[in-house]
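Structure in, sequence out. Go:
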């Protein structure tokens, strides 16, 4: 990578033909606006005139007014925007040579794709500007760049309504699979038999909230379920905690798998015996004893071939 700035000025992605096709289709087929409105907002249009026209189309639709050249020209005239969009001649030209209105959803998809690309470029440009600003903290630069891209992705994945017949059609293969397999747990097992019996396991797309008062064992329970899903169920698991450091979480994981009393790690300088008596020992001996206990219990739980 060279030390020079290789930024090149380019025209932002857009398709004026697709934008004109969307607006022209709505003019000749008002019902198409409902399909378009599910995918597009006024800001998705690249040309300012098209953004203005689409806003007035939406306003006419909300007022249950027909959308044609006459009504659109009238509302643009009242808002003193008719000449800004190109005048009556441009509105009439939108419907002339109009492609098939039945393809309006496809035209809207093209417009949306170009708009998404422009937003990604805008987010990257903002991140580039912040990166050159040496007065701004680098952690904040990273956080803002990630947030900007997440906002673009969230807007991209926003969905609309789904008809009931379409939903049932999508669910039918799942119902056939559940009936054929006859499994009591169809998702990811939590490791708790009674809980799995009620939930059939954690299902894809579920958001599970584990709520309790402080110091009731929420983190321990969640970590135990995550460990079971990873080690027994073979599922990839990522564990995020805003309260505990990774060493604390790792220590809890080792304690649980080795079946060690947490009190022993809370006071590691004490050597516990079966008679509950304690005595001081050399620091080196303490560490060796702890390591041997962890190794022995890990081998017992994971098998003789386990590496510790």
């Amino acid at each position: 990578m060279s030390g020079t700035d290789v930024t090149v000025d380019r025209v932002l992605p857009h398709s004026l033909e697709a934008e004109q096709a969307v607006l022209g289709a709505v003019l000749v087929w008002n019902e198409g606006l409902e399909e378009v409105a599910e995918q597009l907002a006024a800001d998705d249009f690249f040309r300012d005139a098209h953004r203005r026209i689409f806003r007035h189309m939406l306003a006419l639709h909300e007022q249950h007014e027909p959308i044609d050249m006459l009504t659109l020209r009238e509302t643009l005239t009242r808002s003193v925007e008719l000449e800004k969009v190109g005048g009556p001649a441009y509105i009439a030209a939108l419907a002339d040579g109009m492609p098939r209105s039945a393809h309006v959803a496809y035209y809207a998809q093209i417009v949306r794709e170009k708009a998404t690309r422009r937003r990604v470029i805008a987010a990257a440009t903002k991140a580039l500007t912040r990166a050159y600003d040496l007065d701004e903290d680098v952690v904040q630069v990273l956080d803002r760049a990630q947030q900007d891209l997440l906002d673009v992705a969230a807007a991209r994945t926003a969905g609309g309504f789904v008809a009931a017949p379409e939903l049932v059609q999508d669910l039918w293969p799942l119902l056939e699979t559940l009936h054929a397999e006859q499994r009591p747990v169809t998702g990811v097992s939590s490791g708790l038999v009674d809980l799995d019996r009620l939930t059939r396991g954690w299902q894809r797309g579920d958001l599970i909230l584990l709520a309790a008062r402080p110091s009731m064992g929420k983190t321990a329970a969640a970590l135990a379920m995550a460990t079971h899903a990873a080690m027994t169920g073979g599922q990839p698991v990522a564990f995020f905690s805003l309260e505990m450091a990774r060493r604390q979480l790792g220590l809890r994981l080792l304690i649980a798998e080795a079946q060690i009393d947490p009190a022993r790690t809370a006071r590691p300088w004490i050597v516990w015996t079966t008679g509950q008596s304690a005595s001081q020992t050399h620091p080196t001996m303490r560490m060796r004893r702890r390591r041997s206990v962890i190794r022995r219990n890990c081998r017992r739980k994971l098998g003789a071939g386990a590496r510790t």
